[in-house]
Amino acid sequence: MAEEQENMMQPPTSRLPRLATPTKSAPSLRPPSVVGRPAPLGLAMTVAGEKRKTPSSPVIPTAKRTASGPSALGKSTLTKPTASTARKASGSAAAAPTGRRPATRSSTGSTGSTPPSNAAMRASSRSGSALATSGRRTASGSSSASSTATTTRTRPAVAPPTRGVTASRAGRPARKLPISTTAAGPSRPKPVAGKSGIGTGMASAAQFKSHDGRLENVEKMVDGFKELLEQEKSKINSLQTSHTDLQTILLNAQNTEREARKDLSSASEELFVMRAAHAREVDDLERQIQRKDREKRGLEEELGDSRDELGREREVVRELKQTLAQQSTQHMTLSAQLTASQAQLSALQTEVERATLAVSAMKAELEVGKEKACEAEKRADQSVVEVREECDRKVAAVEEELRAAESIRRKLHNQVQELKGNIRVFARVRPALAHELNNPEGLADIAYGDERLAEETGQSHLTVKSRSESAMGKEREQVQQFQFDRVFQPKHGQKAVFEEISMLSQSVLDGYNVCIFAYGQTGSGKSWTMEGGDLSDDLGMIPRAIDMIFTVSRQLKDRGWNYTMEGTFLEVYNEVINDLLGSGQFDTKKHEIKIDNDNKMTVTDTVSLPLSNTEQVSMLLERARSRRAVAATLMNARSSRSHSVFSLKVKGVNPLTDEQCEGILNLVDLAGSERLDSSGAGSNKDRLKETININKSLSALADVIGALGQGQQGGHVPYRNSTLTRLLQTSLSGQSKTLMFCNLSPLAAHLGETVCSLRFATKVNTTPAGTAKRNNGKS
Ligand SMILES: Nc1ncnc2c1ncn2[C@@H]1O[C@H](COP(=O)(O)OP(=O)(O)OP(=O)(O)O)[C@@H](O)[C@H]1O
Predict the structure, then answer these.
(1) How many C-beta neighbours within 10 Å does residue 682 have?
(2) pLDDT, tens digit, for every residue of 280-291?
(3) Which ranges carry the Kinesin motor domain (predicted)?
(4) Rounded to the nearest 10 degrees, what angle do helices 100-109 and 160-167 cross at?
(5) 638 lines ligand 1 (CB under 6 A)
(6) Bridge partners of 539?
(7) Close Cβ partners of 185 (under 8 Å, ≥ 6 residues apart)
(8) Four-CA torsion 68, 71, 77, 82, nearest 10 degrees
């Protein structure tokens, strides 16, 4: 029975072993009246349910916590306890004062019989016929019913408790008797007579009396049954209450299951996610393993290298050990040396002590020496003062001598210049230009004299060979030799040329008038000689002379000389003077030449710019050049058909010697000296006029020089024959130093003009030198 109950309480399925299944286990919790189970089982279930209410309450939370909780609890709470409780309930049912267990026993004993319902019980209590019917039904239900009925009838005298005891199992409480009695079915006389009147109709009257007594007993029993009935009702009520509670528990359990299923679902999702993460982690780990493998291989290689290195290190250590052994030997040697040195040190210390004593003695001597030195210093200071005074006296004397020497130098310098001649002529042959090398006539046959001999004698020669046809048609060669103060060949540069004229620049600072001409045909190199090119090596005589004047003037400052300089730049074109430093684009002023009683020449309305450095001179030359270019544009190219005269006036004052001087440097670029027939003027009146004026002025210049050369200083010198000679009057009057460059073309085509120029230069060169006079000089 207990096993049966356990089976009944066991959950019908184990598919969800971890979750309680309220729907399946619910039937086992139904009260007996609902499911038709035997009352003791239902009671046991109820009691078990009531008893397990308290312990079962934590089951639900446990089910919520884990999935396995509910199933375990379902078993332990609802199945196993129920079985045990059923056993307990059977015990309690035996103790209960009801006849239900006997009735159950009897019904169990009668195979397939249905236990009596409450209504039948009430009916049997209301009428004895019902009981009789019950008794008959019982009797007819089995093959041994007749014997049982007989027994019932033959035991009327037996007291109910006794039969009750007999009917129930031994040892059962006496309160089960009524049930046995009911089963035995004490019947009223009438129905009994009606039904079994065949055997008992003949019963005695005494038996009827005893029936009455029994009837009373039966009524008492009925009352007892009623009480039992009431008790059963109350139990049913309590079971219903329990049922309601169990339903509530069931609902809770269902909710719990739902939540558990949700948890399960979320747990599945988590599981899925965790599996994916796990797969990723596995991949990562595999990659890490691969990387570690690679690292391992690398480390193994490093290990191999390290082993090799270790081998080398061991080798080094072995060598070091050998070295150490050698050093140990050396160390021992050094220790011996150290010992010896320490001995020497102690000896030296002794000497030092001795020396310290000597130093003390010397210090004492030094103090005495210091006093002596102070006295000597005083005497020395006195001597220094005396020496300084002596020096100052000597310096003053030397400076005086120097000044005297400077004066002597100047005298000697000018004597040398005078000896050289105040009118000197240099011939310069320019090199052939690149485009002239292909000239069909080629270069002229010009020969130069021995340069060394020229330096010794101070006279250079130049030989020109020319060929001409005689009147008879014979070709004849003509050799002409010219002699000048110096002849510059095409190979000589600007620097070599300037060395020869640099002393003239010094003369300007000494207060002499210096005039340097550049004479020659067009294109012979006059402008190149006077102005030169832009490169420092190509600088001409004007910038070099002015640069030297500035340099020497700075040097003379030490000797007390202060110089001021100003420059003018004039042009003589068609006998008219133009100021190349004027403010306008083209000079329209009329300029006049005036010479005062002191033989000082001035040109009216000309611009004279103060000059204190070479940069200002460069600007002045550039300004003059640009105005000359404008004039050339406006009035035809005339640069080669006008004379340009740059004048630098130098004034010097020496407060120390109370000297003053004023010199003028004239640098003249003469117009081209072409003859009229070779000038190309032709029928061009302007060109003709230009050429005539050029030749006139050049011839006047030659006349002036010739007149001066013929000793006509006291006589008439035709300065007024041309504007040029008037302009240069003070520079040519014999009180100045004149140098003329005769520029020559190297081309054979220009040989005729070259010879003419050479003749003109020879004429100037043969002019006797006058004596130059210093302007305003005291010495
Ligand atoms: N010693 C020289 N070395 C190199 N080139 C020279 C020399 N002399 C002249 N020249 C060149 O020859 C050309 C003519 O020279 P330059 O213009 O000086 O002649 P010029 O006599 O002044 O002519 P013009 O009368 O037309 O002014 C120039 O191109 C110049 O550079």
Answers:
(1) 9
(2) 999 999 999 999
(3) 422-767
(4) 50
(5) no
(6) 532
(7) 131, 132, 134, 135, 136, 138, 152
(8) -150
Mutation test of ligand 1: which of 436, 528, 678 has the most ligand atoms closer than 8 Å to its C-beta? 528
**Which of ligand 1's atoms lies nearest the C-alpha of 528?**
18
Q: pLDDT class for 640, splitting at 50, 70, 90?
A: low
| Helical segments of 524-579, H only | 526-530, 541-556
CA 528 – ligand 1 centroid, Å: 5
> Residue 522 Cα, ligand 1 centroid: separation in angstroms?
8
Amino acid, res. 124 = S
- In degrees and rounded to multiples of 5, residue 393 shows phi and psi of -60, -45
Q: Is 564 helix (H, G, I), strand (E, B) or coil?
A: strand
Q: What is the pLDDT of residues 424-465, one digit of tens each?
A: 889 999 999 888 877 777 888 899 988 777 777 778 889 998
526 labelled binding-site residue? yes
Residue labelled with tokens 């016929």: 129
**Helix axes 39-51 and 80-95, enclosed angle (nearest 10):** 120
Q: Quick check: 511 and 662 in contact, CB under 8 A?
A: yes
Residue 478 annotated as lining a ligand binding site:
no
User: What's the one-letter identity of residue 394?
Assistant: K
**Which ipTM value was assigned to this complex?**
0.98
List, in sequence order, every beta strand (DSSP E) within 173-273. none
- Residue 410, classed as helix, strand or coil, is helix
Q: How far apart are CA 427 and CA 489, in angstroms?
A: 8
42 CB near ligand 1 (under 6 Å):
no
Helix (H, G, I), strand (E, B) or coil at 114: coil
Contact status, residue 47 vs residue 246, Cβ threshold 8 Å:
no
Q: Would the CB of 642 count as within 6 Å of ligand 1?
A: no
Tell me 172's DSSP state.
-
Q: How far apart are CA 98 and CA 114, in angstroms?
A: 18
**Phi, psi (degrees; rounded to nearest 5) at 567:** -125, 150
Domains in the chain, ordered, with CATH?
426-554+627-651+662-765 (3.40.850.10)
Contact 639 CB / ligand 1 (< 6 Å): yes
Nearest ligand 1 atom to alpha carbon 672: 25
Sequence letter at residue 366: L
What gap in Å lies between CA 554 and CA 749, rounded to an integer?
48
Nearest alpha carbon to residue 463 among 445, 441, 486, 443: 445
Nearest CA to ligand 1 atom 12: 525
CA of 432 to the centre of ligand 1 (A): 10
Question: Please, what's the largest Cα pairwise distance for the chain?
Answer: 230
Instruction: Determine the pLDDT at residue 182.
Output: 41
Tokens describing residue 530: 């006077």
Closest atom of ligand 1 to CA, residue 490: 1
CB of 540 shorter than 6 A to ligand 1: no
Q: Within 10 A of 772 (CB to CB), how many other CB atoms are there?
A: 20
Q: Which of 184-188, 379-383, 731-735 has the highest mean pLDDT?
A: 379-383
Question: Pairing relation of β-strands 423-429 and 486-488?
Answer: parallel
Distance, CA of 166 to CA of 183 (rounded, Å): 12
Q: How far apart are CA 249 and CA 439, in angstroms?
A: 140
Ligand 1 centroid–CA 524 distance in Å is 5
**Region 188-198: what's the mean pLDDT?**
45
* pLDDT of amino acid 128: 40
Report whether 665 contacts 561 (CB < 8 A).
no
Side chain identity, residue 767 = T
Contact residues for 714 (Cβ-Cβ < 8 A; gap 6+): none
CA–CA distance, 122 with 230 (Å, rounded to integer): 11
SS3 breakdown of the chain: % helix, strand, coil, rounded to 5? 65, 15, 25
Distance 428 CA to ligand 1 centre (A): 11
